[in-house]
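Researcher: Predict the fold of DUF7144 domain-containing protein.
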Amino acid sequence: MAQQAASPRPDPGAPRPAPSRNSPWATGGVTFAGVLMLINGVLAVLQGIAAIAENDVYARLGDYVYKINLTGWGWILLILGALAVVVGWGILSGAAWARATGIAIASLHLVAQFLFLPYQPVWSVVMVALDVFILWALAVYRSEDEV
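Model: Structure tokens for DUF7144 domain-containing protein follow.
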């Protein structure tokens, strides 16, 4: 019989690397959340500009409890979009402030898209779903400093 080479065993006294509390899903998710925040921000800015420029660019579908004129929605979306672009860039840069700020901006954007339902129902539902993913990804991620 051929003698097998003994596999090297780790030294029990050697220091081990600290385990990461992040799953690969959470680590990749926070990067994807940063990209989504950046893209959603740009799209919200464009959506806001369109709403400010023309009052009849979006057609209202039926009656809705929350009635704000379209110019008001345009400014809300423009401001939230600009903030989302900055926060998305911060998340991708690894800024410490960006995760908590991203949760706040994604929450506000989710509410704004819910209230924008009568103008663009399908788009608003898609945006709400993306905001829920962003909230999850930013909430479960822990940076190495927090471990």
